[in-house]
Amino acid sequence: MINRSDVPTRLVSLDAMRGFTIALMITVNFPGSEEFVYATLSHSKWNGLTFTDLVAPFFLFIVGVSIVFAFSKKLEDQSPKNELYKKIIMRSLKIFAVGMFLNMMPDFDFLNLRWTGTLHRIAIVFLVCAILFLNSNWKQQAIIGITILILYCLAMNLIPTPGYGKVMLERGINLAAWVDQHYLPGKMWQGTWDPEGILSTFPSIVTGITGMLAGRLMLTDYSQTEKVSYLMSIGLFTAAAGYFWGLGFPVNENLWTSSFVLVTSGFAALLFGALYFVIDILGYQKGTKPGIIFGANAITIYVLADVFALFLYLLPFGGKTLNQHFVDTFISAGFAPKLASLIYALLFVSINFIPALLLYRKKVFIKL
């Protein structure tokens, strides 16, 4: 049963989780030097899981939770679905369009467009999950999610890659890569394959569904401590299930494997539960305030980071870009190269925190 009398319309812990995720996304996307990066701050080369690999699924999980809070009251009030569909479609198109704009910077080469990316996937997951939420209950959503994961696993492990005559899971020669090579328009991120390709988008939608299931839990009449217990228990079970599934279908972000969905969604539920306990139950916000500030305008700050990066990474000053000057200076001062690169990344995050703070103080919350 749902009881909204004691549930806030906006969870501060959710804003904090969103903000910390965006801050981490900026950190890993903009190191001082691509040559000097700690292993866990880089994406896995193929199979496996690094700290960085958690960023994208965490954000999609948050998208799912946010959908529940955004549309539950509207469903209860019997708002016309046609109007809701229009809002959902328009928001998805705007997020997708911003993603295309970022892909085209700085050259705006329309002949070599990449039609996929982080924001593109967020737009698609939001579109599908929001429409699904308006037309199904949580049990149906869970069944749909499980079915997608099973079918994706079977397809990738049983259907031979055309032209090879056998099942392939290696980069560039698996079924997902073959589908992208034949049906994905524009250029691909890795030439012969794309981590945000067609087939891998289906299990990424399930990541959004797991977020919706967590959001649905937050609107039940369970006590706050019971919600934390359920989030933690389910998160631990889901992550463990993903680990064991990964023994047969490896955890892989590039393919967004079924095991990857479960492991990362499990970790997301654990973090969400911890933040909910600390921030919304105990009321401790001081240490989490930077995340809350970033989270209030998450996508806006993500876009601004890409724009700021044009000046720091592309424009030369004295023969080098600003990030090269910074890293070289710190290395000359005796810092380890990877540490110098990380310090620069954290400084860049701090620079992006300034507009986030200004928007937050003025109570300006930009929604695409």
Automatic annotation (TrEMBL):
The chain crosses the membrane at residues 12-31, 51-72, 88-106, 118-135, 142-159, 198-218, 230-249, 255-279, 291-315, 335-360. The keyword Ubl conjugation does not apply. Residues 10-158 form the Heparan-alpha-glucosaminide N-acetyltransferase catalytic domain. Keywords: Membrane, Transmembrane, Transmembrane helix. This is DUF1624 domain-containing protein.
